[in-house]
Write a structure and sequence with these properties.
The complex is a heterodimer of chains A (about 675) and B (about 150). Chain A is an alpha+beta fold. Among the domains of chain A are: about 160 residues, no CATH class; about 100 residues, no CATH class. In chain A, the strands form three sheets. In chain A, strands 5, 6, 7, 8, 9 and 10 form a six-stranded antiparallel sheet that branches. Chain A is globular. In chain A, about 55% of the residues are buried. The C terminus of chain A is likely disordered. Chain B has two domains: about 35 residues; about 110 residues, Nucleic acid-binding proteins (OB fold (Dihydrolipoamide Acetyltransferase, E2P)). Helix content of chain B is about 35%, strand content about 30%. Chain B is elongated. The chains are: A alpha+beta (about 675), B alpha+beta (about 150).
Chain lengths: ~675, ~150
């Protein structure tokens, strides 16, 4: 009976979403306040029902209700409780439900934190989010119902894919989806502005914190996925340019462009149309990502069993949503006023350059990801595009960004002097060049990418810190020795610093990492970069739902034992899937990584993977800093102050006037 | 032309040049890094340009996997149950590699000791999900299972 309740709740949620998508928008277009006021209650109602549905599915997993097909396919009696919960989003149906639920949470958040904004505008925003919800609820109910029954109940379930039985995978999908779906807020704000016909910089100001939060979640979601792939897949890589990774990376690139373009539109009123287009593209790319992952049209290492019919639904939905948005844009675009003037050397130009390269990178990833599809449709044969394409293109497109990025904060709005900017940066430029060339001299065999990567990383970090000190010196008052920067500016600096840290990590791993596959007998040793990996043998160990061969390795350096690594080869009892569990000794400057291949012969020798990964933690540390920067920027006091001022103005105007002009106090930077 | 218009013209020109440059670059990079996919039948029909890197896909023939003791060299046969191609690989195979499983190998053809064609794989890819299978096979298996369940319940 209980699973049917979940199903019922989903249908009610769909009904609520239809109301949320229609009445408020019509009300806003026709000026009917009572209709507009339906927006918030409908959003709350929809969220309540989706939450009930998600709770019911979770309950079915925790209580092992194998009469539900989805539960039976993705859980079994031996599965530990935490993985029973995360199994809710371990496969297609449940992950869609999670998608819809996160959308509902975002909608509720918008409904709650938008009291300061005009009713008509917010009614449209919530209405647009309602339509997105309708699409995904229909998708869930029609093609991927998680509550389908199997009568009679099965005695035991299949199993959750062992790869997903991991703490990283408990949090990776929710974070990633929060990011994906979060771009729907910026999208809805853009569409609402277009619907209203008042495309000015107000909507951008309101949507900025939302975009920053969504971007921060997407950043950490992608980083978690990368970290998980690194330790769980047993190949020690952190990025593979796999179509599914690209699917999450494209919205990230578009989103990065969006947060920079929003800054210009907010501060200077320029790039209004461009910002709207980016908001539409970021969310469309999120949907495209969902399509690519869920349809299985591309051969990917992530290709979990998938279904073309589902892909067609998302593709159709993508066309309707993206096409509709672009049509609306085409109708309204001629009426969009152009913004403030600026000269060739100005912060506007710097941010525009950022946008061009970010959008270019997104397009480049899109072309590489979709090319195999196009080629197959055109009959050119079955093709795949290899990582070298992405690696080369990305290097070419990112090099200018890395070179120019540190100038951004130093450059003034409207107009600046290029000579001054370059002159001021010369000492640090020299330092960076030395930082790149010196390791090349010491190590002899550093590639050109290695030299440029290290120089670039140091360049970005040094210039960012210089900016912090420079503002510190010119600021009148200090707080705990910190300059009086707005949180938005601090967030930006933290994120830029993160880019530098990330770049150092990537460069070190790619150029100085050691990856060896070796055959080892018990007692034998293998030396990598001064670390001595001694293979002591393999034991048999039992886990809750698997048996494993556990290898024992003693790692020493200069005679001192520094770590004992125990990689495992697990055989899961149900389904018999084999899984590699790597053993890692992590460190800030290096990871030591061992994973087991397979037994080679009767003498106890094994195929073993021995990796030395310098600075690999910096990759995720950099991503973490970018995420923290995004969150910090979103929490800027300015948004709260402006909201409070607008509320006050509305109260003064008896609750139905437009908000008063918002005081734009310029923080020291931003 | 007013100075503003002139500046805009330059900006548009710069963007146009940049975009076409980027597109040209992307297409060149694509062409250099494209990998074609061929089945064992296509390999036998001689459709593979000689010396090129490509992806070979098929099922691992039962009983065909053999190792040389002491090192990481492994040999197996990829088949589409009609034609087959022997494959050599040195390294660690993915967890989901096993006989009777569909896999994709990346590498190039070379001529073996006895003059036959051997595929030298630099990479072997298998899916994340053991239940993944070509749709036709999955369908047949599902039907068989349903029939078995129906028999067991009655």
């Amino acid at each position: 009976m209980i699973p049917e309740l979940g199903q019922f709740a989903l249908i009610l949620a769909l009904a609520m979403a239809v109301i949320q998508g229609t009445l408020p928008i019509f009300g806003a277009q026709m000026g009917k306040t009572t209709w507009m006021n339906v927006a918030r209650p409908a959003a709350f109602g929809q969220a309540t029902f989706v939450t009930i549905a998600l709770a019911v599915l979770t309950y079915a997993f925790v209580t092992q209700d194998f009469s539900v097909v989805y539960v039976a396919q993705n859980s079994n009696l031996l599965l530990p409780i935490p993985y029973r919960v995360s199994a809710v989003w371990g496969a297609h149906e449940g992950s869609l439900l999670l998608w819809v639920w996160i959308l509902a949470v975002w909608t509720v958040a918008v409904a709650l934190f938008s009291r300061s904004q005009p009713d008509g505008f917010i009614a449209r925003v919530i209405g647009v989010m309602g339509w997105i919800s309708v699409g995904f609820l229909l998708f869930t109910l029609l093609t991927s119902n998680p509550f389908l029954r199997h009568v009679p109940a099965l005695p035991d379930g299949n199993d959750l894919n062992p790869l997903l039985q991991d703490p990283g995978l408990i949090i990776h999908p929710p974070m990633l989806y929060t990011g994906y779906v979060g771009f729907s807020v910026a999208f809805a704000f853009a569409i609402a502005a277009l619907l209203e016909g008042r495309v000015d910089s107000r909507w951008v100001r309101w949507s900025r914190p939302w975009t920053n939060v969504a971007w921060a979640f997407l950043t950490i979601g992608i980083a978690l996925g990368s970290w998980w792939a690194y330790y769980e897949l047993g190949w020690g890589g952190w990025w593979f340019w796999d179509p599914v990774e690209n699917a999450s990376f494209m919205p990230w690139l578009a989103g990065t462009a969006l947060i920079h373009s929003q800054a210009v539109t907010d501060k200077r009123g320029a790039f209004k149309s461009w910002t709207i287009l980016l908001a539409i593209s970021a969310f469309s790319l999120s949907l495209l990502g969902t399509f690519l992952v869920r349809s299985g049209v591309l051969t990917s290492v992530h290709a979990f069993a998938s279904d073309p019919e589902r892909g067609m639904f998302i593709l159709g939905f993508l066309f309707v949503l993206c096409g509709g948005a672009l049509l609306l844009y085409a109708i309204r675009a001629p009426g969009i006023a152009t913004g403030g003037q600026f000269s060739t050397v100005s912060r506007e130009t710097a941010l525009l350059t950022n946008n061009l390269f970010m959008a270019g990178s997104a397009a480049m990833v899109l072309v590489g990801t979709l090319y195999p599809l196009i080629a197959e449709a055109a009959g050119w044969g079955k093709i795949s595009v290899g990582p070298p394409y992405f690696g080369l293109m990305f290097f070419i497109l990112m090099a200018p960004i890395i070179l120019l990025m540190p100038y951004g904060p130093f450059t003034r709005w409207r107009s600046d002097n290029a000579g001054r900017l370059v002159r001021d940066s010369l000492p640090l430029l020299a330092v960076s060049v030395v930082a790149g060339v010196a390791p090349w001299i010491v190590w002899q065999d550093l590639s050109i990418r290695g030299v440029l990567g290290l120089a670039g990383g140091i360049w970005v970090m040094a210039m960012t810190i210089k900016y912090l000190l420079h503002v510190n010196r010119s600021a009148k008052s200090r707080w705990l020795g910190m300059p009086r920067l707005s949180r938005a500016a601090l967030g930006m600096l933290l994120a830029h610093l993160g880019v530098g840290v990330f770049l150092i990590g990537v460069t070190m791993v790619e150029t100085r990492g050691i990856e060896k596959d070796v055959a080892m007998k018990p007692g034998e040793s293998f030396e990598a970069n001064g670390y001595d990996f001694q293979f002591l043998g393999v034991n048999r160990v039992d886990g809750p739902n698997y048996q494993a061969d556990q290898g024992v390795f003693s790692v020493s350096r200069g005679g001192d034992v520094i770590a004992e690594l125990r990689p495992e080869k697990r055989g899961y009892s149900r389904g018999g899937q084999i899984m590699t569990e790597a053993a890692i000794d992590p460190g800030l400057t290096r990871d030591l990584y061992v994973s087991l291949g397979e037994p080679l012969d009767e003498t106890g020798s094994w195929a073993v993977r021995v990796y030395f990964k310098p600075f690999i933690r910096w990759i995720w540390l950099g991503a973490l800093m970018m995420m923290a920067g995004g969150m910090l920027a979103a929490s800027d006091q300015r948004y709260f102050r402006e909201a409070a001022a607008a509320r006050k103005a509305r109260a003064a105007a008896q609750g139905d006037g437009e908000p008063a002009a918002q005081g734009d106090e310029a923080p020291a930077a931003a | 032309m007013t100075p503003t218009r002139k500046r805009r013209l330059y900006a548009v020109l710069a963007i146009a040049v940049g975009v076409s440059g980027a597109v040209a670059l992307a297409l060149t990079a694509l062409n250099d890094n494209m990998l074609f996919f061929f089945s064992p039948a296509e390999v036998h029909a001689g459709e593979v340009p000689s010396g090129s890197n490509f992806r070979l896909g098929g099922m691992v023939l039962d009983g065909s996997v053999s190792r040389t003791p002491g090192d990481l060299k492994v040999r197996f046969v990829l088949t589409d149950y009609n034609k087959s191609v022997p494959v050599e690989f040195e390294g660690i195979l993915p967890d989901l590699f096993r006989e009777g499983q569909g896999i994709i190998a990346q590498g190039a053809l070379s001529t073996g000791a006895s003059g036959e064609q051997v595929f030298i794989a630099s990479e072997v890819l298998a899916k994340h999900d053991e239940t993944y299978m070509p749709p036709e096979v999955a369908d047949a298996l599902k039907k068989a299972e349903e029939a078995k369940e129906a028999a067991g319940d009655s």
